[in-house]
Design a protein that fits this description.
Elements lengths: L1 H5 L23 E9 H14 L3 H17 L4 E8 L13 E8 L7 H17 L5 H8 L12 E5 L7 E3 L2 E3 L13 E7 L3 E9 L5 H17 L3
Parallel strand pairs: 4-7
Antiparallel strand pairs: 1-8, 2-3, 5-6, 7-8
Helix pairs in contact: 3-4, 3-6
Length: 231
């Protein structure tokens, strides 16, 4: 009931500018870029979140919503986000449970950023409370058909809530290596990965729609928004 009411009206389509025309069939060809967010900025974000009683995830999602609105002109944004965990103690299966939920935000031009933070906090809580409903079932119920697109959202944001820690084997320290990929599940996915000394921003994107140059520009704009929205 929650999900069907959330999408009871027409599902908004994100009109992001692309470098190449969108095909009739969705492309899953992709690549990644990696940027760094200064740890001092992340610490200030954490302090602001404590003051407002929200999580850093809410802040990063709100800034992502503003970025998408500025780029597309849309004021009704649907973003996918992965949720991991299990709510029922009766599940006997072993392993990690990951589901995808859709968050709907409305970053209107006349709205204060503080209001947007509150809205995203509340909608995130409601969505997480209803996460057990499989995303695939929602798609079937809505009956959405979109040529060349994902049926509900074209973009995702994933926030790693646990800080990446240093790992070593005996006296050998493990160094993370940026992996290359040739696939993309969505048009764009922003992955936020906090570490001890910085925050990694990994952007996965569809190479049949966007150039690497554009993605680097989007990552730069996002980092600027993270700073500007603290003021």
């Amino acid at each position: 009931k929650y999900w069907l009411e959330l999408f009871s009206d027409e599902n908004p389509v994100l009109n992001l500018p692309t470098d190449y025309p969108r095909g009739a069939v969705q492309s899953f060809m992709g690549s990644n870029i990696y940027e760094q967010i200064d740890i001092s900025l992340h610490k200030r974000i954490e302090e602001k979140c404590k003051e407002r009683g929200i999580t850093p995830y809410v802040y990063y999602m709100a800034c992502f919503s503003v970025l998408l609105s500025k780029l597309s002109g849309n004021e009704d944004i649907v973003t996918g986000t992965p949720i991991s965990g299990r709510q029922s103690s009766h599940l006997s299966a072993i392993g990690m449970f990951v589901n995808t939920i859709a968050l709907r935000s409305r970053p209107e031009g006349n709205k204060k950023f503080s209001e947007l933070l509150t809205e995203i906090r509340d909608s995130s809580i409601e969505a997480i409370d209803n996460q057990n409903y499989p995303f695939g079932e929602l798609v079937k119920k809505l009956g959405i058909t979109a040529a060349g697109r994902n049926p509900v959202f074209d973009v995702m944001l994933a926030y790693q809530s646990f800080e990446m820690t240093d790992t070593s084997f005996s006296d050998k320290k493990v160094e993370p290596v940026a992996l290359t990929t040739a696939s993309s599940k969505c048009d764009i996915t922003f992955n936020i990965l906090p570490r001890k000394d910085d925050v990694v921003l990994s952007v996965n994107y569809c190479t049949d729609l966007f150039t690497e140059e554009r993605m680097k520009k989007y990552a730069e704009m996002y980092t600027d928004l993270l700073e500007l929205c603290l003021k």
